[in-house]
Amino acid sequence: MKIRPTADEDLEVFVDTIHTAFGHFPEAPVADGGRWWSALEMDRGLLALSEDGRPVGTAAAYSFELTLPGRHVVPVTGVSAVGVLPSHRRRGVLGALMRRQLSEVRARGEFLSVLLASEAPIYGRFGYGPATFTTRLTVPRHRAALAVPRSRASADAPASAADSGTVEVLRRSGCGGVLEEVYDRYRRAQPGALSRPHRWWALGAGQAPVSSSPRYIAVHRDADGVADGYASYSIGEGGTLTVDETIAVDDAVFTALARFVLGHDLVSQVVFRHVPPEHPLRWRLADFRAGEVGEYADWLWVRLLDVPRALTARGWFADGDLVLDVDDPFLGEHGRYQLTVREGRAACVPTDRQPDLSLDVRDLSSLYLGGIAPSTLVRAGHVRARHPGTAALADALFRTERPPHCLHWF
Ligand SMILES: CC(=O)SCCNC(=O)CCNC(=O)[C@H](O)C(C)(C)COP(=O)(O)OP(=O)(O)OC[C@H]1O[C@@H](n2cnc3c(N)ncnc32)[C@H](O)[C@@H]1OP(=O)(O)O
C-alpha cells in the first residue's frame, strides 16, 4: 500500500472513493458546485493506493482556526472525508493515513488537529479525544414564556436589560455577507468554535445556513443597526420550528433571537439544535421543565501534537502548578511537563519531578478546551491522580470562562 498527496485533478476519484467507503452514491455530479466537497482543499488530501495503484482510502484536511479558552485563536487542521473501501478494511489503511496526516500537520508548524467522528471507537487510538459537546433543546410553544432575569428585576435594573435591537426575517439569498460577518464575531469569542473560511460561504458548501438549502434567517441588529446575531430556521411537520443554528455575539442577543422564534405563530414546538450544554437559555425559561434536553453528543474531537505549545497557547483562569506525565502511544512519544499558571498564562517545560497526573494524550486532548473536568476522567479510571486533592486542583486549573462549543460541520 502506498499513500500519495492529492491535487485538484483527483477530486472526482477522491469523492467517488469516499462515497464508496460510506456506501452511498454521490447525490449530484462532482462538478456541481454547492456540495460539501466543493470546499475540499485538494492540495491537502491523501489517497491510499493498493499494490496495483487503485485508490482504496481517503483523508482530507481543511485549514481552520480554532478559538481556545481566553479567546486565543490558532490555526488547526480539520480532518475529514476519511474512508477506506469495504474491500480493504482492517488491514491498517486508516492507521497509515492517520500517521502520514499527523506528520504533515506537524510539518506545517501546527500543534492541534480536530475532527468530527462518524463512530466514537475509531479515533482514540490515534490520540484524539472528544472535547466539545452539544445538545438539542425542545420547547413546547405553550410553555415557552421567559422569566424576567432576577438580577435585573429590581428597581435599579440597568436600562440595557431590555432588548433595544430589531429582528428582520430574510431568505438566505438576501443575507449577503451578513451571516459570515456575524459568525466570525461569534466564533472569535467562543472557545471551541471553528472559523468558516470565506470559501465555505461563497460555495454554499457546509450545513444550513451556509448551504443554499431553503431556510428563513432571523437577523438581529443592535440599536445602531449593526447585525449581531442570527437564527436559521425552517418549519416542518406538525408545526415544529427547527433552528439549525443560533449565532449571537452575546447572551442578550441569543435570548432576543430565542424569544423571536418561540413567539412564532402556528408553531407547536421549537427545537434548538446545537445548543451548548449548560446554556443559560434553559434557565431563562419560566418553567424549568419546559426545556427538554436531548441528543447530548460529542462534537469536536481534538488531538494535541505538541503539549507545551498547546498548553501555553490557551488562556487560564486560576493559578496553580501541576506536573503532567503524558503518554502518546500512537506516535511512540512520552513527556513529563511542569505546568505553571500565573495570571492567565501558562509556562510548560520538561521536568523530571514526580508527576501529579499521569494520562494518555487522548485524555489530555479531551481536557484541553475545558469541556470535561479532569476529575471525571480520574473517576472513570483513565487519568491517574497521584495525590489526594490533585484532581480538584486540576479541575480548577482547566476550567474555562464558558464551556467550549462547536457547531461547524465539516
Ligand atoms: C473524520 C471522519 O472523516 S469520520 C469518517 C470515518 N469513516 C467512516 O466511518 C466510513 C466507513 N468506515 C471506513 O471507511 C473504515 O472502516 C475506517 C476508515 C473507519 C477504518 O479503516 P481501516 O483501514 O479498516 O482501519 P485500520 O485497519 O487502519 O484500523 C486501525 C484500528 O482501528 C480499529 N477500527 C477501525 N475502524 C473501527 C471502527 N469503525 N470501530 C472500531 N474500531 C475500528 C481497527 O480494528 C484497528 O484496530 P487495531 O489497531 O487494534 O487492530
Automatic annotation (TrEMBL):
Keywords: Acyltransferase, Transferase
Chain ranges of the N-acetyltransferase domain: 1-149
Matching InterPro entries: Acetyltransf_17, Acetyltransferase_Eis, Acyl_CoA_acyltransferase, Eis_dom, GNAT_dom, NAcTrfase_Eis, SCP2_sterol-bd_dom_sf
GO molecular function, one term: acyltransferase activity
Binding site for acetyl-CoA: V82, G83, V84, R90, R91, G92, V93, L94, G95, S118, E119
Pfam families per the UniProt record, alphabetical: Acetyltransf_17 (PF17668), Acetyltransf_9 (PF13527), SCP2_2 (PF13530)
SUPFAM superfamilies associated with the record: Acyl-CoA N-acyltransferases (Nat), SCP-like
Active site residues of this protein: Y123 (proton donor), F410 (proton acceptor)
Top EC group: transferase
Enzyme Commission no: 2.3.1.-
Family annotation (Gene3D superfamilies): 3.40.630.30, SCP2 sterol-binding domain (3.30.1050.10)
Top-level taxon of origin: Bacteria
Subunit structure: Homohexamer; trimer of dimers.
Family per record: Belongs to the acetyltransferase Eis family.
Alphabetized PANTHER family for the sequence: N-ACETYLTRANSFERASE EIS
Protein name: GNAT family N-acetyltransferase
